[in-house]
Amino acid sequence: MIKRIKHSLEYLLDKSSREKTSQAEETLLNDFAFSEYQNSKWDESVLGNPEDASQNIYDEIQLRIGKKKNFNPYLKYMAAASILFLLGLGFFLRPNVLNQKQITFNTSSIPKSIQLSDGSKIYLAANSSFQYPEKFDGDQRTVSLLKGNAFFEVAKDKQHPFIIHSGEIQTRVVGTSFHIQLSKLNCKVIVVTGKVNVSGKGQSVDLVPNQEALFESQKLTKQMADKAFLVNWYNEDVMLDQTTLKQVITILQYKYGVSFQYNNEHVLATPLTVFIKKDATLENVLEQINYITNLKFKVYGEIVKVD
Description:
alpha+beta, 13-stranded mixed β-sheet, 18 strands, 31% helix, elongated, disordered N terminus
């Protein structure tokens, strides 16, 4: 019975988020949410003031969607009531989950790596931000890439899928290795080993090694990946033999979290061979490129200018 109720609620909420519900279904959702909110018992010692909590949830949702849509006035009650409803059924909030510590891991000018409680390893690019629980608990292992780029080596556990939220997409795996590259304009997932599912905005694609998913302009597409990206360049030495400056720049952008500016796009076709050590600084790599190409790369914070 609980599974049936949970499934129906998730189904209607998903339809509502995609604006696919009928007026009758919206009314049903609104009535249910408001009824649950009014009838539920709220433990202020754990959850805080109910009005403040529901308003905070509502404000966060509005912030995330940029207030681009008009929401039903009961939205804040739907959010708070959903928490209480699932708490009452005993499969959403447990005491140990309520107090579960979330850790935010940030990098500055150099990539760094961390190992999670399940044995998974995350290699984070420079100028990136990653959030994860101190200890995984529940049916899923859920983390978030908040900013930048990362390479994931996920410990295999078929009973507990590993889920990464990055921008507007969700990546779901059991045990595999892959890149996620998140920027203000798009998000890309590149699979090195195993199978990966990527979903967002009602769209879903399955990926195998050498494939990538690109989420851009609210559209999710699948394509073949560039072979140069099928390695963990955060933790491995990389040899780029007889490649172009454009490809080298792309990897440097992902590894060091910088952007490049150049006046002449023709320089991107410059051929070169570059060896990038796993622990090399950006400045060391640029010195090597300067020597090979006779170009001048200068670093200004998170921007590299090419003369």
